[in-house]
Design a protein that fits this description.
198 residues, alpha/beta, seven-stranded mixed beta sheet, 5 helices, 18% strand, globular
């Protein structure tokens, strides 16, 4: 059984509910570091309820333990069965524990926005009605904003949440060349903004 740590920040009366996910791909570990760093020192939220998943994928490679790219395994209209490799979307959509976990979480919650942290393209990529929150994120990171990552992503989380379920969904592709601690400070400020101001 794959243990996925879901952290819900307690606030009784909240305005918005957001979900933040780190380490979709096991070889992109920075999101877990940013999330854990923030949670270790953050004060109680004052405005919004945030759910954090520091590490979705417990593998150390891009794919999960079953060699499935989780970001190609969602039950979207454009899911396709692909060959084994780094972008293998599974034998069928929603076949993986991690994917099932997120689909179930989405079925039980109405999130106002979802953010995932990837690398290395230094871009804010959004799906669905997420241009507004993308512009807020840009203020902290300075990355360009795009709604097209530049290549096909059948069965992607962004398509499933943003395009098909109309939940504002943002993929932050961090700059791997930037100093990790400087980036961590930016994410700390971003998470604080999302909890207390957005």
């Amino acid at each position: 059984m794959n243990n996925i740590n879901l952290i819900k920040r307690n606030i009784s009366n909240y305005d918005k509910k957001l979900l933040i996910i780190g380490v979709f791909h096991g070889d992109e570990p920075q999101g877990e570091y940013f999330i854990n760093s923030y949670l270790s020192s953050a004060k109680a939220p004052s405005k919004n309820l945030l759910y954090f998943i520091p590490r979705l994928n417990n593998s150390s490679k891009r794919t999960n333990k079953n060699d499935v790219d989780l970001n190609r395994n969602f039950p979207t209209k454009n899911w396709i069965k692909s060959d084994l490799g780094d972008y293998f979307g599974g034998v069928e959509p929603n076949s993986e524990i991690e994917t099932k976990f997120l689909v179930d979480l989405l079925n039980k919650n109405n999130f106002n926005a979802i953010i995932t942290i990837h690398s290395p393209y230094k871009v804010i990529n959004y799906d669905g009605p997420a241009e507004e929150i993308s512009k807020e994120i840009q203020k902290f990171l300075g990355y360009k904003i795009t709604n097209d990552i530049g290549y096909p992503t059948p069965g992607s989380f962004g398509t499933y949440c943003g395009v098909e379920r109309k939940i504002p969904t943002v993929t932050i592709e961090i700059d791997e060349e930037e100093d990790l601690e400087e980036l961590n400070l930016k994410f700390n400020k971003l998470f604080n903004f999302l909890e207390n101001e957005y």
